[in-house]
Design a protein that fits this description.
Layout lengths: L32 H13 L6 H19 L1 H13 L10 H16 L6 E4 L2 H12 L8 E4 L6 H9 L1 H6 L18 H12 L7 E3 L13 E5 L1 E4 L6 H21 L7 H6 L2 H17 L3 H15 L3 H9 L5 H17 L4 H12 L1
Parallel strand pairs: 1-2, 1-3
Antiparallel strand pairs: 3-5, 4-5
C-alpha cells in the first residue's frame, strides 16, 4: 500500500499562462521597481546564515504593497522574477510552474487543521507559503517554519521571540531552537523540534512538506494525509489511514472551491489545482477497488466531477476503474475518444489512443 508515499504534483501538464510582464498599475502607485530589483538581488546574494530572512521579509512586504496597488497579476509577475533569480536548484522559471507551486502549497494549507505548524524544507515551498500568508492573507492561523532558514540568527530570533510560535514549538527562548549544520542538513534538527513539541500533551497539529524527508520516522506516527505528512498521536490500521485520507481530501476539495466557486471551464479548474486532486485519486481509487469499497470510490468521483468531469484525466480514471453498467462506463470511453479525435497532435492524446487500442 502506498498511502504514505507523497504524490509529486508540481510539473504536471498545465496550459494556463499569466501575462508576461508586470502591469503598470495606477498612476499614483508608489512601487519603485528599481528599488525592488535591488532588493531581489540582495536576497538572492545573501546566504540564509547571513541574514537572508530579514531581506526576504522586506521583499514580501513590498510584494504585498504591489498586490494591493496593482493586483494579483503584477504580484505574480514580480514573484516569478524573484524565483527566476534564486538558487539554480529552484527551477521555477515560468508562470505555469509558479502557479503550480503556489496552488500546491495552497492545497497543502487546506489539508491542515487550525493552529497547525507547517515545516518546509526548500526555497520553493517556503517562499510560496510566505507569499500566500503575507501577500494574499491566506491561513494566517498556521505557523510556517522553514528548516533551511534556521541557520540564520535573524530567523531564529524572529521565531524565538514570537509568543504564538514559542508556545506552539514549546520553546522557552531563542536558545531552545536547534541550529542545523547547514541549510541542507535539517533532518536531525527537525526530529529534535518535533520531539520537543510532542512532549507537551496538548501540542498543535504538525505538518511536513514532502521534501522534509522524515516520513518513516517516529515509529509510524508520521503519516501521509494527502499532499503533506502529519504527525498522528495514534497509529491506525491501513483502512483507518485510508478513511482519514479520504476525509482530508474531501475537506480540502470543499475548502479550495468554497472561496472561489466552481471554475466555469476546465482551464480555470486546472489553474485552481484540480490536477493535484486527480493525482490523489491515483492513490485512493486502486485501494478502494482492492477492498471493494465502490461506494467510497463513487463518492469521490461524484464530488469532483462537476469541476473535473470535462478533463481527459478524470475520464481516464473513471473509465479505468468503472464498475457500473456498460452504458455508464461507455460515457467516459466516449469522452476519451472525443479527446483523442480533437487533439491529434497532443502527446497525451496519442498515449490515450494507444492504450485504448491495446484493450
Amino acid at each position: 500500500m502506498h498511502l504514505l508515499r507523497p504524490v509529486l504534483t508540481v510539473g504536471l501538464l498545465l496550459t494556463l499562462f499569466l501575462p508576461s510582464g508586470c502591469t503598470s498599475g495606477p498612476e499614483n502607485s508608489r512601487v519603485d521597481y528599481g528599488d525592488l530589483n535591488s532588493l531581489i538581488d540582495s536576497v538572492t546574494a545573501t546566504p540564509a546564515k547571513a541574514g537572508r530572512y530579514s531581506l526576504a521579509s522586506e521583499f514580501f512586504e513590498k510584494l504585498a504593497a504591489i498586490r494591493q496597488a496593482e493586483g494579483s497579476d503584477s504580484a505574480h509577475s514580480t514573484l516569478l522574477a524573484f524565483f527566476s533569480r534564486l538558487d539554480p536548484n529552484v527551477r521555477i522559471t515560468d508562470s505555469v510552474a509558479l502557479l503550480q507551486m503556489v496552488e500546491w502549497i495552497h492545497n497543502c494549507f487546506t489539508m491542515m487543521d487550525s493552529g497547525g505548524v507547517f515545516f518546509t524544507n526548500g526555497a520553493a515551498d517556503t517562499y510560496a507559503a510566505w507569499y500566500l500568508q503575507r501577500v494574499e492573507g491566506i491561513r494566517l492561523d498556521l505557523i510556517v517554519v522553514s528548516l533551511p532558514f534556521l541557520v540564520g540568527v535573524d530567523y531564529r530570533q524572529t521565531l524565538g521571540t514570537d509568543t504564538k510560535t514559542r508556545r506552539a514549538l514549546n520553546l522557552l527562548g531563542v536558545e531552545d531552537l536547534p541550529v542545523p549544520p547547514s541549510a541542507w542538513e535539517t533532518r536531525e534538527i527537525l526530529e529534535k523540534i518535533i520531539t520537543r513539541v510532542i512532549s507537551r500533551p496538548e501540542h498543535p497539529p504538525l505538518y511536513l512538506a514532502p521534501r522534509c524527508g522524515i516520513g518513516g520516522a517516529f515509529g509510524g506516527h508520521i503519516v501521509y494525509i494527502g499532499l503533506v505528512h502529519a504527525y498522528q498521536d495514534s497509529i491506525g490500521t491501513e483502512d483507518q489511514l485510508l478513511d482519514r485520507l479520504v476525509l482530508r481530501l474531501t475537506q480540502s476539495w470543499q475548502l479550495h472551491y468554497a472561496s472561489r466557486g466552481f471554475p466555469p471551464d476546465p482551464q480555470d479548474a486546472i489553474r485552481n489545482g484540480m490536477i493535484q486532486y486527480l493525482s490523489l485519486l491515483l492513490v485512493l481509487v486502486p485501494e478502494f477497488e482492492k477492498r471493494k469499497r465502490y461506494q467510497d470510490m463513487d463518492f469521490l468521483f461524484a464530488r469532483m466531477e462537476p469541476v473535473a468531469g470535462e478533463d481527459w484525466r478524470f475520464s481516464a480514471l473513471r473509465y479505468k476503474f468503472c464498475h457500473k453498467t456498460k452504458e455508464e462506463c461507455g460515457r467516459y470511453l466516449d469522452k476519451l475518444k472525443q479527446y483523442v479525435a480533437e487533439h491529434p497532435d497532443d502527446p497525451n492524446a496519442r498515449e490515450v489512443s494507444r492504450e485504448l487500442e491495446d484493450e
